[in-house]
Structures are given as C-alpha cells and as structure tokens.
Design brief:
With 380 residues, the chain is α/β, with parallel strands linked by helices. It has a nine-stranded mixed β-sheet, with helices on both faces. Strands 2-1-3-4-5 form a five-stranded mixed β-sheet, sandwiched between helices. A two-stranded antiparallel ribbon has the order 7-14. It is 31% helix and 23% strand. The protein contains 13 helices and 16 strands. The mean pLDDT is 92. The relative contact order is 0.12.
C-alpha cells in the first residue's frame, strides 16, 4: 500500500505528541503513537519518562478493543527487547493491530530493524520512512549517540550586534534580555549535560541548572532530578574553587582535567571528590585544550548523555568550533553594540583558505523579547 495524505496527517499528529516528551524522557528518545481505526483516532500516547510506559502501550490502553484491525503511526520503530518495560512490538501483535507506519528505524543496536521484523513475522503490514527527517531531527541526540557514540552538541551564544560577549571592563551580565535567558533554560532542560570552562566558573560562578517557573516545569514533565543535568567543567589545571556554587547543588559535577593536574594535585582532587564532584583526566596535547571528542564520548558511554549544551567563554566555544564538535548554534543577539574593545564571541584560529571554512545552515530566525534568536546547523 502506498502512503497517503491521510497517513501523513496522522504521522504529523504522532510527531506532535512525541514533542511533549522532549524534556522528560532522557536518556530515552521522545516517541509518539497514534492508533487509527476506520479513519478515526481511537488511541494515542507519548513516552513521558524513562522507565515509564512507551507511547505504543499508552495508545493501546486508550484504544482498548478498538485497536483490533487498527493502523498504528509510530515516530520510532517499536522496541523488540525487554528493558524496563516489555517489548512494544509484541504488545501491538497481541492487540491485533493490522498495520504499523513507522517514521524511522531505531538506530539502537538492540532494536535496529528487529521490531519491524517481529511485526512482519506476525502478519502485520509495516510501512517505513514517512516523515523520517522530522523524526530524526526530533531525536537528533539519541540518533547521534547510537550511530557515532557522541552526543549532539548545541552551542549557546549571547552577544551584542557586533559579536561581543563582554564590554571592555569585562562586564557581561546581562547582554541578552529575560526572554532570551528563559529560552536558554529550556535548552538546558532538554540536555543531559551542560558544559562550560573554568574561566566562566571563575568569572561568573554559574549554577548550570534549570531555573524555570514551577508551572512550566510541571507542563514539561520536569522533576527535581531533570532540573539538574550533569554539570561539566573543563579545567586542565584543576583550578576549580571548592566554594563554587554548583558544588552545593543536587546532581553531579564532572571536572574534566589533565593527567598532569590529576597527578600533581591529589589533595585538591580528594577535596573536590569529598564535595561530591567527579574528577576525571582526559588526554591533552601541549598548548591545546582537553580532547573534546574524548570528553564527549565519555559523556555518552559513561553517563548516557544524548544532548549537550555548551555555555562557555570565547576560548572554549572557539575550540569546540575549530575541532568541529558543534552540531547546532543558538545565537541570541541583543540590539546593542559594545565596540572594538569588547570581548569577541569566539577565539578561533585563522582559516587559511576558503576551502577550510566551516559552513552552517540557518534553520530558524525570530525575535524573542528584545533579542534576535538565530538557530544554525552544521552542514556536513
């Protein structure tokens, strides 16, 4: 059977449902499911929290007996393995669903086509690929973690019109207005880790947690734990103050340092670990920052981080750009100028020739309060 406009309509609905779990399902993907019988929606659901019922199960519960002979529209291939919940592929079989339309194959090696094969073995028609691009974008972090072993990195910048992040005297709070800062907290809320550099810690003493109104947290499904994503500080010389405010918060602070600093500062390491911080050494070339790819891989493999928000100063932000680990830039631009002596947003090495340039695609641009918000994705 060829896919129809009606199929597209119901898959779009499933994608909108999946978006409701975008902030609350980590490290699991956000998934939506719509059950349709005789052209009418009889059940729908979305994955709300890791460890909770999957989207298909919630939709089947709502549909009840009307699931018999229905078509299921699912944004991600139904799982086929036992995890913290039973396999959804079997649940669809048991309910008597006749057809399943899947937006994309699950990149998780534990599934990766097995759920589709399971459905087909039990006589269910499966159509794949409807709105696949939208489904991949929805779970870009999950997809990248499963296929590359790395998280999806979003770089947040807040600058003046002339690209400055601080005035000549170093003052920087606040260039962007309240509405832009609110969006910044939403970016933190969808991230498994927030990464910064020791320079930012020493200058601003940031908390790196999610601070949103209580009613917004409730609407997004954010509990206390989710409001404290993993905090990561790149600190090659181990200068982290034991009085740093983030060390007083719930959740985990990971201090990424060098082998040399770890060996030479054992008392500091012990003191920071006593405060609850995790101190881990990563490789580092002389005169270069800590190996960012090794750090990012560590976040995915050891902490199941799918999405990273980088909020840092010009040096670390520029290094992330130069080492090509940034997937998406969220640039908040205030309608002011700070002049030639202001601090530039990025410290980047010179591009020797145009063929070496890093190219970006602007996917969204809009006003947010008093500021402009530009979202750009890396062209690969």
């Amino acid at each position: 059977m060829s896919l129809t406009a009606e199929d597209a309509h119901f898959m779009a609905r499933a994608l909108r449902l999946a978006q409701r779990g975008l902030y609350s399902t980590r490290p699991n993907p956000a998934v939506g499911c719509v059950l349709v019988n005789s052209g009418r929606i009889v059940g729908e659901g979305w994955h709300k929290k890791a460890g909770g019922p999957h989207a298909e199960v919630l939709a089947l519960r709502q549909a009840g007996a009307q699931a018999q002979g229905a078509t299921a529209y699912v944004t991600l291939e139904p799982c086929s393995h036992w995890g913290r919940t039973p396999p959804c592929a079997q649940s669809l079989v048991d309910a008597g669903v006749a057809r399943v339309v899947v937006a994309m194959v699950d990149p998780n090696p534990q599934v990766q086509g097995q759920g589709i094969a399971w459905l087909r073995r039990h006589g269910i028609q499966v159509d794949i690929g409807l709105m696949a691009d939208e489904a991949r974008q929805l779970n870009a972090g999950f997809v990248k973690a499963m296929t590359e072993g790395l998280p999806y990195v979003r770089l947040k910048l807040a600058t003046s019109l002339d690209g400055k992040v601080a005035a000549a005297d170093g003052s920087s709070q606040w260039i962007s207005a309240e509405a832009a800062r609110y969006q910044g907290h939403l970016l933190r809320a969808r991230s498994g880790a927030v990464v910064t550099g020791i320079g930012t810690v020493l200058a601003d003493d940031p908390l790196l947690n999610v601070r949103l109104p209580e009613e917004k947290c409730e609407a997004l499904g954010l509990d206390e734990a989710l409001c404290h994503p993993l905090r990561v500080v790149l600190d090659s010389r181990l200068s982290m103050p034991q009085t740093a405010s983030m060390l007083q918060l719930p959740g985990t602070t990971l201090i990424a340092t060098s082998e040399q600093a770890l060996t030479e500062n054992k008392a500091t390491v012990n003191a920071l670990r006593t405060l609850g911080a995790e101190v881990v050494a990563f490789s580092q070339q002389k005169g270069e920052p800590i190996d960012l790819r090794s750090l990012l891989h560590h976040l995915t493999t050891e902490y199941a981080v799918r999405d990273v928000l980088l909020e840092a100063g010009p040096r670390l932000s520029g290094a992330a750009m130069a080492y090509d680990v940034v997937d998406e830039v969220h640039w908040f631009q205030a309608d002011c100028v700070l002049g030639d002596e202001g601090l530039d947003v990025l410290h980047l090495p010179a591009v020797r020739t145009l063929s070496d340039k890093l190219c970006w695609q602007r996917i969204q641009q809009r006003r947010v309060g008093q500021d402009s918000w530009h979202i750009l994705q890396r062209r690969r």
